[in-house]
Amino acid sequence: MLSAFAQAFRTPDLRRKLLFSLLIMALFRLGTFIPAPGVDTKAVQACLAQQEQASLLDLVNLFSGGALLQLSIFALGIMPYITASIIIQLLRVVVPRFDDLHKEGQIGQAKLTQYTRYLTIFLGVLQSTTTITLARSGALFPTCQQSIIADDSVTSFLVMVIVMTAGTSVIMWLGELITERGIGNGMSLLIFTSITAQLPSQLLSIGQGGNWSAVAAIVAMILGVTIAVVFIEQAQRRIPVQYAKRMVGRRTYGGSSTYIPLKINMSGVIPVIFASSLLAMPSLVAQFGAQDADWVLWIRTNFSSTAWLYLTVYALLILFFAFFYTSITFNPEEVADNMKRYGGFIPGYRAGRPTAEYLRYVVNRITSAGAVYLVVIALLPSLLIIPLGLGAGQMPFGGTTLLIIVGVGLQTVKEINTQLQQHHYEGFLR
Question: What would the pLDDT profile of 60-106 be if each residue is shown by its tens digit?
């Protein structure tokens, strides 16, 4: 990987793209430290220092690079765009119009992208309103008694909502700039930047508390899990496909053989994000109830990140969403129909329905292994907290974190290698 980056910097065109991507990532990190209007920065820092328990907004804070709990102009991070993209994909199953746009090619994809942008703005307004309301009521930092927003006027509230929503729009624009002029997927790289920026400081804070053995154990687990994630994410089940020869005029077409690559983890990190978001809802509701009520105390006890009920429900939700999302993104009937239309077939299976049934059988078996893999990766950090004696909010990484970091790293290195091959391809003329 390092040799690929070194060779890319020696290529002028790739060097410009890499430097442009790094510049945008630096601007994104700079925006996370600029406070929104009306926020008392000193009070926020004091409340962050007092925070001991895991926050219900930890997932959003993770994708914002810590900007959410600091109430900066980029407080919402990339999370509204991620949520909007997932919703648009799910609507393909419910709304036929979205499925038709998906099949129209580049024009349809452009319209879906436009709808995603509109939905991102709407979700940005909704999430910024919720965050500011929690901050003004004191529910954002339950253990802190300081007022982090001094001005409670409606004008100040509206200005903060507009600034945070505009920050989300700027982040979306920065991600698209990286995709067009830089290297890799812009949104993925911004998420990668947010996550990796917090990891060193969190490890250092654990070590400064005198628990260097826990730091060593965490680093060892990160390395081990990274190797496992790379191995699984690169693994494929290749189903052979042959195309029959056909005569068109005096020319013969077809007669070639290829394969359908099926990844073990076809759903990616989406099931973990869905499960984490749903399990955050009970804690969110409990914040608005009486803190000494029995149902609030029950939720706090059973929905902490180390509670067995939380871990069990978390695992079941990941299993469910792994199968659900895979069924949306991979349609065996559509693949079988496309193969039949172009004269393709899987050896030993007739074209049409038998091929679709075989593909569904293979996908279900692969998804079973991929879902178990996601459950293990997602639960491992939470289970590691117990023997290390760390608090729920002290673990510097989670299953979502590692999957995103390794996945984005692999994707970026692949794109760099692809562009390197294009730049150094000599062709047949030499």
Answer: 666 666 667 778 888 888 888 888 888 888 787 788 888 788 777 78
| Single-letter code of the amino acid located at 209 | G
Asked whether the beta carbons of 75 and 64 are under 8 A apart, the reply is yes
- Rounded to the nearest 10°, the torsion over CA 374, 184, 227, 218 is -80
**Which position has the token pair 């299993």?**
319
Q: Name the residue among 332, 324, 327 with its Cα closest to residue 260.
A: 332
Which pLDDT score, from 0 to 100, does residue 429 have? 43
Q: What angle do CA 209, 215, 219 make, to 5 degrees?
A: 160
3-state secondary structure of 239: strand
Given a contact cutoff of 8 angstroms between Cβ atoms, the answer to whether 355 and 349 are in contact is: yes
Residue appearing with tokens 């999302």: 325
- Residue 394 parent element (H or E): none
pLDDT in tens, 33-63: 888 888 877 877 777 766 654 455 566 666 6
Rounded to an integer, what distance in angstroms lies between the CA atom of residue 199 and that of residue 192? 11
Length of the chain: 430
The DSSP symbol for 136 reads H
